[in-house]
Structure formats: structure tokens, C-alpha cells
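I have been asked to look over a protein record a colleague put together. This is what I was given:
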Amino acid sequence: MTAPSPAAVKDTKSPPLASELLSGALMLTMQRPERMNSLSEEMLAALQAGFDAAAQNAEVRVIVLRSTGKAFCAGHDLKEMTAARAHADRGRAYYADVMNRCSELMQTIVRLPKPVIAVVEGLATAAGCQLVASCDLAIATDTATFCTPGVNIGLFCSTPMVALSRNVGRKQAMEMLLTGEVIDASTAKQFGLINRIVPKDYLEVVVRKYAETIASKSPLTLKIGKEAFYAQAEMPLAEAYAYCANVMVENMLARDAEEGINAFLQKRKPEWKGE
């Protein structure tokens, strides 16, 4: 019997990211449990492609990011990172490329014109914690844990710090970054890293409810709102009000706003056109 070629063996391997569209909700599932769904080159590319495609698909109203196995995401693939030290430049070019690609992925999630919900089961560590913080909403099981442990191995979690410090209080972010200690779901909720804690048996029901609720809204309104939220957050108060007042004016002139207000006054369900 002839042994299969390496390429043939690779082809039988399941893709790193599974995709399923359910009633306007795109379920993206990281499925490399044997590698703790780490952000390997393969996973980074798959996630980037998945989010880019979702941005262009009019049928997608909301994205749900989840995982298989015991970890949500273990951050960067340290085996790949270590192997790059054998390069002539000790890995400098490789590390710069990986960090840039990871940073672009996180910014893609923030810039995406559709809400992204992280569903966390198990551990979210380092860049995996960054991934959770970059999503618009996060739902976790009561056994989920979070940490930015780079300081423990001599590598401060500087890029995860960007997303973390924009989603939790400064002192809470520094606590996680300086100690590298694992926090439980309850503490993560207190810090503002996640929205809700759900028993595992009810996770699917709650996630579907969140997704269906968001998917039922006007896609144009969601796009306008998400873009404005992140833009105003970086502005001084007066500038933020001026910017958002203009956003409200333009939104009020949209057909979906006209339809939504009329439907409310007429006590009927609105019919969104996305315009």
C-alpha cells in the first residue's frame, strides 16, 4: 500500500476555522484544540479571511466567535515563535510580521461594520485575552479564565495591553499585566472584560438569544452605531458630541430610521432595507 503524500495528509485535516450562517448570525469556530486554538500563522490567516468575508456578506448581521476544546485561545504559538530564532536575524522580521498581522486582525474586528460576540469557554490567555477584549461583546461560562501572563516568561503582553486597556479600568489592566495571574469569570466581569457569565448548560441558549436579538436590527444602524462608538471614544468630550450629533443627523435621514420610527408609531414590525 502506497503511503499518502504530505499534501494529501494535510488535505484531510479539518480547517482551523469552521463557519456556519444561522439566521443572520455567522458562527466562526476555532478548531485547533490540540494547540489550544493558538494564534498560529494558520489561525491568524483563517480568522482574517473569515472576518474579511463576513464584512462583505450582506446576509451576515452579527458574528459569533467561539472555539472547541479546553481553551478559547492560548495566544501566539510559542513553538512557531521559538523556531524563528534560528533565522539569521534571530527572528526579527518574522516577529514583526506576526505582530503586525495580529494587530491588523484585532483592528479588523473593531472596524468591522457588524457586531462581534466572543463566546469564551476555558482559558483566554495573552493574545487570546486580547481577542476577547477586541470583540464588541463577550459571554463566558462560569469556568472560563483569563490572563496576560507574558511577564512570567520575560515577554510583557504589550500588544494585548492595547485592547485590554481600552476595555477595563487602568488599574485592573495593570494588575493583570504586572502579575500575570489568572482571573476567573466573576473577576473578569467585575473588570469589564466580559458582559455575562452563563452556566455551560445554558450557554448555547443565551448566545443564540444575543445573536438573534442583534441580527433583528437594521444592518445600517448597527454599522453606524459601532463605527461611531469607537470613533467618539478616542475624542475629547466636545469633539465627541459634535461628531455624534452629526452622526445622529445623518442616521435620522436614513430610510431605515424613517421606517423604524414609522413602524414604532404604527405599532408594527419594521422592515429593514439597510439604507
